[in-house]
Amino acid sequence: MSIILIAGFCTTACAQAPENENESTARARRIILNTRHLGAHGLGYNEQSLETMSRRLTPPDIPILVRLSGDIDLRVGAQFALASQCEAAIFPVRDAAVDHRMPFLDAEDTMLLIEEFPGCAPEARQRATAMRSEIHTLEEIDERNQEQQAKERAAEDARIQANGLKMLDPKQAKQLTRQEREGVYRRSLKAMGLTEDGPMTPEQRDLVQRMYRTMVLGESGNRPPN
Asked: How does DSSP assign 139-162, residue by residue?
């Protein structure tokens, strides 16, 4: 009997979790939108917005605010909302930028808001200044890494293309390793918009199997499958 009760409670709790999460997100969204003020350029956010958000939002709201920062309509408001949480938001914002859940520039802007918000403790504002510099450095490192990865992908793609040309010549094709032939095979699938484990029609699957036998195993294209 107790097992049944526990199972029933778990089912109810699991069903309520997404609903509670949605309610929290909707609540944070309302707070952000309701703290806009009319300025020279229309509705926007200011120090008064920060003060109101600091009273209505709490650190447990930070993950939700990070997600809302990806909403184009709430992007700036979410930055103000995060900044209103002062020190509690510093490392979550940094981590969100590093994980590409938030643009580095937005993370820097959030740190600047913390620096300039009198409602934050002096120590928190100093840490935000240091973190803004760190985020800028991390952005530069990330850009260099992405450039390097792009170069490596381009070089790998050129190598696979060259191997594909070699496969047109039976003599050169014999010089390729199985791994190199598989690379050409997978690139051909990608060009067709297919993947080995993706959905296919029976005709596509038959074609892919024949491609594998001829390109990777080196069998005759007219040879029936075993």
From this structure: HHHHHHHHHHHHHHHHHHHHHHHH
Q: How far is it, in rounded angstroms, from Cα 54 to Cα 36? A: 14
Smallest CA-to-CA distance from 106 within 75, 73, 67 is with 75
Give me 26's structure tokens: 């909707």
Domain regions of the chain by residue span: 2-146, 177-226
Residue type (1 letter), 159: R
Q: Which pTM value belongs to this model?
A: 0.67
Contacts of 184 (CB under 8 A, 6+ apart): 160, 163, 164, 167, 176, 215
Q: What is the mean pLDDT of residues 208-216?
A: 86
32-72 pLDDT, tens digit each: 999 998 766 678 999 999 999 999 999 999 999 999 999 99
Q: Give the CA angle between residues 95, 96, 98 to the nearest 5°.
A: 60
